[in-house]
Amino acid sequence: MSAASVISVLDDDPYVRAAINNLLESRGYVVRTFASTEEFLRSTDSNDTSCVIADVQMPPINGIDLLTQMRAQGSAPPFIFITAFPDESVRARALKAGATCFLAKPFAASDLMQCLDHALAAGRENLE
């Protein structure tokens, strides 16, 4: 793990944001949390994030649309999707759009950390 890894957490549930924030900060990551995709896009953190962890179901721009929009603009941080409503068709859309992982809530901290390790490794490979 790089000390400079900035993880952006997007979820409209403040308890989910806080839990993920606490987990990741306890592991040494720099964490930025956002209540919406719009809030994330307005921030400068969208430009220097090492990985995005986003809820799939967020109004008005859902996580998959955010990923697609960022890819179209040339931004390619790895994405991990989390959702309380796991659906195979949504999972397939997320992975086809380029998501690294798709986790159903509630998920184990170890599963999120495994996804994050994989995502950051993939992100480093894309930079090389």
Automatic annotation (TrEMBL):
Residues 6-120 form the Response regulatory domain. The keyword Signal does not apply. Keywords: Phosphoprotein. Gene3D superfamilies: 3.40.50.2300. The modification 4-aspartylphosphate is found at residue 55. GO terms for biological process: phosphorelay signal transduction system. It comes from the Bacteria. InterPro entries: Bact_response_regulator (IPR050595), CheY-like_superfamily (IPR011006), Sig_transdc_resp-reg_receiver (IPR001789). This is Response regulator.
